[in-house]
Amino acid sequence: MTEGNPLEAFKKLKKEAGGVSDSGRVGAVVGVAVILGAVAYFTGLFGGHPKPADQPVSANKEEAAATIELNEKQVASIKVEPVGEHLFKLEKGAVGSTDYNEDMAVQVFTNYQG
Question: How far, in whole angstroms, is CA 4 from its chain's centroid?
Answer without folding.
Answer: 58
